[in-house]
Amino acid sequence: MRSSNAYRITASAALCFAPWLANAYTINCDNVVVQKKEFNLGALDNQYSLYTIDQHPPTVDNTTFAINFCRPLNKREDINAKEDCPGGSRVCAITNETNTVDHTSLIRETIPIAGEYSHTQGGSLDPKWTRLKTSSATADKGREGLRLEMHGGMYKETHGSKTRKKKQKAIIEFICERTPDEKRRKRDELLRIKDKDENEDQDDGDDDEVGDDSGERIDDGHGGTLTFISFEDEEEFTTLRLEWKTKYACEDSKDSRESSKSGHWGWFTWFIIM
Ligand SMILES: *[C@@H]1O[C@H](CO)[C@@H](O)[C@H](O)[C@H]1NC(C)=O
Ligand SMILES: *[C@@H]1O[C@H](CO)[C@@H](O)[C@H](O)[C@H]1NC(C)=O
Question: How far is the CA of 59 from the centre of ligand 1 (A)?
Answer without folding.
Answer: 14
